[in-house]
Write a structure and sequence with these properties.
Helix 7 crosses helix 10. It contains ten helices and eight strands. It is α/β, with parallel strands linked by helices. The chain has a single domain, classed as Rossmann fold (3-Layer(aba) Sandwich).
């Protein structure tokens, strides 16, 4: 008689069977392609409680167990002031997935939302800084965040539409304020639709939004501008199915020779600088 698998084992098996091509391989490809993990790394996997960060935690755990490069994970949750039921959901999901997380309290929500303007920007900035600080305190040299393929292309399009820049999201970057620390994005090539499919296949429910000042609903999106861009891309993909992949490929093959202006290292440049040379 076949041995009955635990929920944890079923979830782990699904990543290397049913979702091997759509989740596991893109995850491994991004780690390799962008050299995200090196021998001896100690990585703080940052968990917000949403589907992306919880999947990331499970993938990083499996890679630590079975990968060829030795490294270690620390599964880090920062509670900025969650409602009790939201914190309980994070703890419950960690138990199902068998993720040995540690939760650290902060009062970031209270501080950020005491401001009259820019609360969301301040909250995001404070949370990122807190994660770097705590990870460094715990002896980690990297933090891993759950940004995925769709985040990358949506951020690129948003920068063009709303910030008058062609600005992408890097798969890894050095911290400007925490010496020796790096941020990595191992889900860089994983599509959101596949994360949703994995979640539903395994009967999992995660937090929809980490913010206590917004509704925790299936339809909530992180902002009206991102929601508009997400919907625009979805509609355009109906006629051009590979549109999102084209956007992704384009940020890997920028032709500076065709750009009238660009920035590098905070310095603005013009095509006129070398035009007559």
């Amino acid at each position: 008689m076949a041995r009955e698998l635990t929920p944890q084992q079923k979830i782990e098996r699904s990543l290397i069977t049913k979702y091997r091509e759509t989740i596991w391989h893109p995850f491994i490809d991004a780690v390799s392609r962008y050299q995200l993990i090196s021998e001896g790394d100690r990585i703080a996997v940052c968990i917000s409680g949403g589907k992306d960060s919880m999947l990331l935690a499970k993938l990083m755990q499996e890679l630590e167990r079975h990968g060829k490069v030795p490294f270690s994970n620390t599964f880090l949750v920062m509670d900025p002031g969650y409602r009790p039921e939201n914190r309980e959901m994070i703890e419950r999901n960690a138990e199902i997935l068998q993720i040995p997380l540690t939760i650290h309290d902060s009062d970031i929500f209270r501080i950020a939302y005491s401001q009259e303007h820019g609360a969301c920007y301040l909250c995001a900035k404070m949370r990122r800084g807190w994660l770097y600080h705590k990870a460094q305190e715990l002896g980690c040299n990297k933090i891993a965040l759950g940004h995925h393929f769709d985040d990358v292309i949506e951020t690129t399009v948003m920068s063009m539409f709303y910030s008058s820049q062609i600005r992408a999201m890097l798969p890894k970057l050095h911290s400007d304020h925490f010496e020796g620390m790096e941020l990595i994005r191992p889900l860089y090539e994983v599509h959101e639709k596949d994360i949703i499919a994995w979640k539903r296949y395994n009967g999992l429910e995660f937090l929809q939004c980490a913010c206590r000042f917004t509704d925790n609903s299936e339809t909530h999106d992180g902002g009206t501008r991102r929601k508009a861009i997400k919907e625009l891309i979805r509609k355009m993909k109906e006629e051009t199915p590979d549109l999102d992949q084209s956007i992704f490929n384009s940020i890997h093959s920028v032709c500076l020779d065709t750009m009238p202006g660009w920035q590098s290292g905070g310095v603005r440049h013009s095509f006129l600088e070398d035009y007559d040379r």
